[in-house]
Structure formats: structure tokens, C-alpha cells
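Action item from last week, closing it out:
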Amino acid sequence: MPLRSIATFLFMLMFAGAVQASTILVWGDSLSAGYGLKSGEAWPTLLQTRLTDEGFRHTVVNASVSGETSAGGRSRLPAALEQHKPSIVILELGANDGLRGLRPQLMAENLTAMIDAARAAGSQVLLVGMQMPPNYGAAYTRRFAQTFTDVAQAREVPLVPFLLDGFADQPELFLSDGIHPTAEAQPRVLDTVWQGLQPLLGRK
């Protein structure tokens, strides 16, 4: 094989490897970790299947942890960015902050710090919002939901306003705890995330 052909072949291999190595890091809590579900049922796993079916050469790494708060995610993120070097970070944290009644301002600071860290590592960020049930009071639930919008606007990142959009009022799509979506609801969660993610994927 001529020298030029060998060089071209090696370049194509390197380019293909770089494309295949593109990683999407799902950085969330139990809503993304697949709490109460069987292996393969959570929406991040369904996302990998959709990406493959759609012809995208991305690998999904689901590093979500049940019970995680925005503070915990903030402390763990630098090591994950170094390990996985994601091109995209799907940031789905804050639900446990709300369930514990923590101040939205603290959550905003943690989300902002994670967005800044991801960007500094060369990653795009998709922020995924959450809403609290009405029993937390109108003032708190409104301020909590608005926090995600404020952070997204301040840092100019795309936002999925509500992970459970379209079925949060349908108890049959939640486990007995009333918090975690069932396996049947996971495709709907994926559809919601996909709307915000797709523009970040670039060419196939």
C-alpha cells in the first residue's frame, strides 16, 4: 500500500475512533438511575438504543446516583469529567433538594458550578428541570421550578423544564411511592429529554 494511502487509512481510523468515543454523561438522581426498575428499563438505557437506531455514534454513561443532591453531584462531577471526558452532560439534579425543602438558591449555586465545570472541560450541557408537588406550598414550588429557568438563562444552556412533563398527574405511571416513574413511563421521559438533547448531537 502506498505511503499516502496508509496515512489516509490511519487518519480515517483515528477520525472514526474519535466519533465513536463521543460520550453523553447522564448526571442525575434516582429518576435517571432507574430506581425500582429492571436492568435496561431506565430512560438512559433507552436513550442509548435510540441514538444507535438514529445513527448517532455516541456512548451513554449513566452515572446517576439514587438520593443524590445538587451538592453531592457538584462534589463528584470533576472526577467524572476527567474520567469520561463527555461531549455532552445531561444535568438532572435538584429533585432531592426540593424534597428536603432546601433553599433553591443553594441549588442554583450548585447547578451553576456544575455547568461551569462541564463547560470548562469542553462539554455541552443540557439542564433538566424538576417540579415539586403542590403540598410543598405555592411559593416554594414556584420558586423551585423557576430556579432551573433562571440558571439556564444565566448560563445560556438549553433547558428541559420538567423531566416528568405530560404524565406527572397520572399515578398509574408511578411506582407505589408516587415519586419514581414505572418502566411504562420511561419512553415518555426519554421523549421529553430527547427534545432538548437532539439539537446538541450534531451530525450523525
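Closing note: The helical segments are 3-20, 30-33, 43-54, 70-84, 95-99, 104-120, 138-155, 186-197.
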